[in-house]
Amino acid sequence: MRDYIEAIILGIIQGFTEFLPVSSSGHLELAKWLFGDTATASDSFMMTIILHFGTALATLWVFRAYIWNVLKNFYKPEGRNYIWMIILSMIPAVIVGVSFESQINVMFERQIIFVSIFLCVTGILLLISDRILSTEKPLSPIRALIMGIAQAIAIIPGLSRSGTTITTGVAMGIDRREVAQFSFLMVIPLIFGKIAKDAMDGTMASGGTKLGPLAIGFIFSFITGVIACKWMVTIVKRAKLSYFGIYCLLVGIIAIILRLFVWTS
């Protein structure tokens, strides 16, 4: 029963924090630590991937009309260009994921100080983002690739993927609504690709995490993800990210204090 309760809480955390720029992976690692989770790095990473799968489907659901319009107009230049930009944005994360998979897994093994430091970095990035006023440029292939590089760096737990990519896009002057939408869509192929790879090589079947908790976590991450995704587009458009920046700084600092002076195990 404890596994299921933990999965529900982790699913809710993932659903909200995937779209809010506060680092879903960082919050998941902190939550697992507070729960006293003793899963191996690979099993912990598997739960993280499944929860991300739920929010990826939430993204597809929220933007289903826009995605369908892009696919329907694939024969037109604008449709092909958008898909090409999605592909470009994936390349850096694919290279990093394939080349450093074992090192990435280690980062998901209760590295609390490490995670907390990068939560503080996320907070600083978000505070900077709201101070950028000129955001009228269109998305372009080179800008999509640069956002992809930011996404690859944000594999680090504690560094918000959406916060990092949105801040990067806004810093390049891209329209805030467009950059938020692209930020959410660019991660979907990567998550589906990771799930397919783990399913084919037997990683999912060989993991110690039970299927029941994984399924429950997935369901709750999807439901809360739909709610948070709709909310986040409005927040980015209104340039209200600094509030989340302050939150990330506070959480990061508090977690460091707790790890060093309260829960030292």
Give the SSE map.
Elements: H1 2-19, H2 24-35, H3 41-62, H4 64-72, H5 77-99, H6 101-106, H7 112-129, H8 141-153, H9 161-171, H10 176-185, H11 188-201, H12 203-206, H13 211-237, H14 242-261
Helix pairs in contact: 1-2, 1-3, 1-13, 2-7, 3-11, 3-13, 4-5, 5-8, 7-9, 7-14, 8-9, 9-10, 10-13
Key terms for this structure?
265 residues, mainly alpha, 14 helices
Strand content: under 5%
Which class best fits the helix and strand makeup? mainly alpha
Helix content range: over 70%
For the residues shown, what is the average pLDDT? 84
Number of strands: 0
- Main pleated-sheet profile: none
Number of helices: 14
Helix and strand string, N-terminal first? HHHHHHHHHHHHHH
Distance N to C terminus: 24 Å
- How would you sum up the global shape? globular
Unreliable spans are none
- Oligomer, anyone? single chain
Q: Roughly how many Å is the radius of gyration?
A: 18 Å
Q: Any overview of this molecule?
A:
The protein is mainly alpha-helical and 265 residues long. Helix content is 78%, strand content 0%. The protein has helices at residues 2-19, 24-35, 41-62, 64-72, 77-99, 101-106, 112-129, 141-153, 161-171, 176-185, 188-201, 203-206, 211-237, 242-261. Helix 4 packs across helix 5 (77-99) and helix 10 packs antiparallel against helix 13 (211-237). The two termini are 24 Å apart. 43% of the residues are buried. The model has no long low-confidence stretch (mean pLDDT 84).
Condensed summary:
Helices cover 78% and strands 0% of the residues.
